[in-house]
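Methods — Computational structure assignment.
A single polypeptide chain was analysed. Its primary sequence is given first, followed by the predicted tertiary structure written as structure tokens.
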Amino acid sequence: MRIEDGIAEYDRQSEAYIPIEEVKRSDDPQIQAHWKALAEDRLEDLIADAHTFRPRVAEATERLIASHPGQRVLAVCHGGVICAALAEVIGIERTLWFEAGYASIHRIFASRAGIRSIASINETGHLRGVE
């Protein structure tokens, strides 16, 4: 096991974490503004280094792939990182484009020729029966 700082979540410097379900339900105007920024993919309204987040995730993902040729790699991270990594693979501009489920699995195939493809998004079958 190793820690890859490049796949740390965009809000890793925050003083507190509020689950997304609470963010969505909140009546607090500040939290509502936070949710609106997330929903509109406006990371620049939430963090100072928004312009470096997605490239940092992409570079870290490529480092993980390159350091394990022919192997499977398991990376544990949060939803923003997952969105950014998958957005890079499919080539879309939007970084925060879907809500990754808690403990969901997302698989990227990586060829040695540099081709990346998505094998699955938001797999949760392993969570059946878990409350």
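Note: Residues 7 and 76 are 9 Å apart (CA to CA).
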